[in-house]
């Protein structure tokens, strides 16, 4: 019997300019290109163990990435002119441990890359975080 495992790859829009989109992911998020194929104009970035595929013809999507130091990243990126669609905010107090250790809080911030893909940055913090 087959079993579904972890997420292997997420396809995201490359937008009108693959180079601009890849530069954003490299310069803002610190994730470099793992492989690129021209033609047809597609690239892969590794986010942990998950491949992000950037190619034309895919609608803009949403990807959630774990981050440590969300507040500091937001302040630095915003000061550099990176527009956020939502600043860091508490989205869930995980009192029962549904998504991780019980008592942690989950904070998220959202921004878009030049191709219109939404990036959710997620940080889980221990209970003592204000």
Describe the structure.
It is a single chain. The protein has 130 residues and is of the alpha/beta class. It has one domain: 2,3-Dihydroxybiphenyl 1,2-Dioxygenase, domain 1, CATH 3.10.180.10. The protein contains two helices and eight strands; from the N terminus they run βαββββαβββ. The strands form two sheets. The protein has a four-stranded mixed β-sheet with strand order 1-4-3-2, with helices on one face. It has a four-stranded mixed β-sheet with strand order 5-8-7-6. The longest helix has 10 residues, at 18-27. The radius of gyration is 16 Å and the shape is globular. The chain starts with 8 loop residues before the first strand and ends in a 5-residue tail after the last strand. Residues 6-124 form the VOC domain. InterPro entries: Glyas_Bleomycin-R_OHBP_Dase (IPR029068), Glyas_Fos-R_dOase_dom (IPR004360), VOC_core (IPR037523). It holds the Pfam family Glyoxalase. This is Glyoxalase.
Short description:
This protein has 130 residues and is an alpha/beta fold. It has helices at 18-27, 70-79; strands at 9-13, 33-37, 42-47, 50-55, 62-66, 84-94, 104-112, 118-125.
């Amino acid at each position: 019997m087959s079993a579904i495992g972890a997420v292997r790859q997420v396809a995201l829009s490359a937008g009108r300019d693959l180079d601009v989109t890849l530069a954003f992911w490299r310069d803002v998020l610190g994730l470099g290109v793992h492989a690129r194929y021209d033609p047809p104009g597609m690239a892969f970035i590794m986010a942990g163990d998950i491949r992000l595929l950037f190619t034309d013809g895919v609608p803009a999507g949403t990807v959630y990435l774990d981050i440590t130091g969300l507040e500091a990243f937001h302040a630095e990126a915003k000061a550099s002119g990176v527009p956020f669609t939502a600043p860091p905010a508490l989205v869930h107090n995980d009192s029962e441990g549904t998504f991780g250790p019980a008592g942690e809080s989950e904070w998220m911030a959202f921004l878009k890359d030049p191709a219109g893909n939404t990036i959710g940055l997620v940080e889980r913090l221990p209970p003592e975080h204000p």
